[in-house]
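Protocol step 4 of 5: obtain the predicted structure for the target chain.
Materials: sequence only (see below). No template structures provided, no constraints applied. The aim of this step is simply to have a reference model before the mutagenesis design in step 5. Sequence pasted as it appears in the construct record:
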Amino acid sequence: MPQADSNEGREEVVPTVADAPMSEALFRAARVHRIMAGGLLRGTGLYAGQELLMMRLWERGEQRQADLIKTLGLDPSTVTKMLQRLEQSGFVTRKPSPHDRRAVVVSATRAGQALRDQVKQAWSELEQVTAAGFTEVEYDQAMRVLARIEANLTTPTPPADPADTAGGASVG
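Step 4 output (structure tokens):
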């Protein structure tokens, strides 16, 4: 982690209340991004987050609910609730798998398929707003940084070396 006094050369320093500026900046950016997405999706009848599930169905067609859970990386109860709402809205159907009665198969309905162009347009607008003012180099750099952050957050960290926790000095 960079030293606290390494803010030289930065145009702005993100204000922080928890002494975790990167985490706070990510939290705020994700929050306003989700709010913006919700606003752009308002006319579709989808809530922010539901469009990601629908995109998976549009890309891959009918699939098992367990596969959607794995692909989206969400809690099973979150996906179940999301699917219940989408089903009530007439955008998806759920039925037992003909091959495995324990599995549930999800597919987009005609009404769900009809949302595809609207969602694509909303995400195009969201991308334009999100990347506004970026040069191509800055955009590429931001994508690399975001990929690194995602990898940092999804890759298990190795257990700390006991020698490191003892101040680096070995007792002998």
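Step 4 remarks: Residues 21-151 form a domain with the Arc Repressor Mutant, subunit A fold (CATH 1.10.10.10). The mean pLDDT is 87.
Proceed to step 5.
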